[in-house]
Design brief:
Its EC number is 2.6.1.42. With 284 residues, this protein is an alpha+beta fold. The protein folds into two domains: 116 residues, D-amino Acid Aminotransferase, Chain A, domain 1; 158 residues, D-amino Acid Aminotransferase, subunit A, domain 2 (D-amino Acid Aminotransferase, Chain A, domain 2, Alpha-Beta Barrel). It contains eight helices and 15 strands. The strands form two sheets. Strands 7, 8, 9, 10, 11, 12, 13, 14 and 15 form a nine-stranded mixed beta sheet that branches. The protein has a six-stranded antiparallel beta sheet with strand order 2-1-6-5-3-4. Helix 6 crosses helix 8. The chain starts with a strand and ends with a helix. The structure holds 4'-deoxy-4'-aminopyridoxal-5'-phosphate.
Length: 284
Amino acid sequence: MRTVYVNGDYVPENEAKVSVFDRGFLFADGVYEVTSVLDGKLVDFAGHCGRLRRSLSELSMNFSVSDDELLAIHRELVSRNGLEEGLVYLQVTRGAADRDFVFPPDDTPATLVLFTQEKSLIDSALAQRGQKIFTVGDHRWSRCDIKTVQLLYPSLAKMEARAKGGDDAWLVRDGLVTEGSSNNAYIVLADGSIVTRDISNFILHGITRKAVLACARKLQMKVVERAFTVEEARHAVEAFSTSASGFVSPVISIDGHEIGDGKPGPVARKLRDVYIEEMRKASI
Ligand code: PMP
């Protein structure tokens, strides 16, 4: 039985409650963050806090809990649940109010929920085997840069890929790959350059993306931030995705086309190792 955090209280998970009038429940009017935990410590907490503030501000959502308080809550939950490796999920919604499209008054308290999930992040069977990707249309809204809890379409996209025997979906808008269902997408070209979609409203500005691109540049790898087509991806020598829960995760096929020799490639494996090493050093 986990201990979870709800609006100031640490409670057993089966006693945690949120109102049926919560705008997160009724309107998906909420934002979230997922921070990974290695050796009982938080990975890139400052990055996740920064993006949370941006999501809240883009949606004019009032939230009075400070970064220091959020850090203390994360640490308390990790400690109470004895979490060594896994994730901390945080969600903030605009709070509970009678159902209305108009936002409730500014003094309506936000809802804050956090819980932990145990997960083997380093020894990942999927990272060892490599992911099979299928491409599907990107039918999300045009503010994918805000990390909202509107996750129905990404969930449908992933299920579509699963129905075809794949592991995950890469989303395609106007013939160009935007990102994965819950991760950023990358290809490696024959000249060794790493290509990933440039930052815009059409992708989430991944915290892992930023750190992994910094690792790549430090390793003198060439990074090109631009859109790429599905055709280009199918003919890439390597492909991979990044996220807080998957770190760097190699891709071995796209729409049934084998990538490279059909095994996790050297660029993805190197970046995964270096990223994990760097994050272990910097976790708090
Ligand atoms: N894109 C999408 C759509 C995501 O849902 C996620 C993870 N939540 C990412 C990218 C990766 O972001 P991060 O590296 O911050 O986990």
